[in-house]
Structure prediction request, 406 residues.
Amino acid sequence: MGIRVLHSFPHKIGAARICTTAWHEAAGVADAGGDLIVYAGAVQRPLPSSIETRTTLARGRWRLPYRALGTLRTIALHDRIVARALPKLGDSVDVVHTWPLAGLETLRVAKRLGITTVVERPNAHTRYAYEAVARECERLGVALPPGQEHAYNASKLHKEEAEYDLADHLLCPSDFVAKTFRDEGFAPERLVRHTYGYDERRYFPTPGERAGQLGGAAQPGLNALFVGVCAVRKGLHFALEAWLRSPASRTGVFRIAGEFLPQYEARLAEMLSHPSVHVLGHRDDVPELMRDSDVLMLPSIEEGSALVCTEAIGSGCVPLVSDASTGVCVDGRDALVHRVGDVDALRRHITLLDADRDRLAELRAACLDAAPGLTWTMAGRQLLRVYEEVASGPRSQANVPSVLVA
Prediction:
């Protein structure tokens, strides 16, 4: 008989951003044959019927608004409810999977019961993220608004670090994330690698409609795209500087899909006013934008595993990314990767693909070759294997089982 996993997610599973990630993780594991019970704050999109789903902050049509108590207090309530439910499940749970800032009590109970635990790390070590973003904000002269997710918050950091210490394993979706934890002194044996995926029903190529198609047909102008929250963390300023210093900006177009932090937008106003730069704002047609683009630029200074990179690969849109954004990208095979902040390298990559459409076509072909192995279905299979590995590995009071090494 297989293992049983309790997946505790404090938000509206199936909604946007990490809520979508959590939904696909659970659905992918179930599709791979995993036995799952999901405790979610609320359900925005129903999970497959094979998953036992319980809500902690919703009953029928009634939902506790997250703004009523504040998000942090609300997800802490979710944590307490799951922690109280866990002992009643007895020996039926083999692995507990929690998310940041919403697992401290659950992890303590699981530890007392001898249940293996994993904590999702959708981003780098929070201390690293705070410090990296703060340095770049200071360099640019941009202040993060109060409450912004990467503005330094000592109480949040303290709680997350307590969760790190309690967990048997940290689920790292990229080598970059794992490195930020190793640099903080975490034993490699505690860092397990998994991946995020993409929905192939939404992200797929349209062959033969644009430059960079497999045949390498010529078409004037490179079509570049940025997708994401337009904030310092995502490094959009690096992309704009590299684009405007490249000859590609004379004949091509750089489209930016995402909402800006106001002060950041003001800081970049001169570059954003260039005729080759099109600011689109928030968009719901990202799959179509990717199908109509040659390259995706994501020069982030810190990431978890950027979903847009996987979605771009599935669409045949070549990622030009920083080494903090790689996740599933392989430099020179299906992407071109530069060091964080290396504007000259990104400029060279843009210029190369603008001038050499055969190279663009090669990279696009490699994206499409890699894409079937990067779906959420494949990610679910990998996550189930991770669960099986950590559940079968030895546990100790020092929380250092000998399992997958990041």
In short: The CA atoms of residues 257 and 285 lie 9 Å apart. The chain has two domains: 4-197+376-392, 223-374.
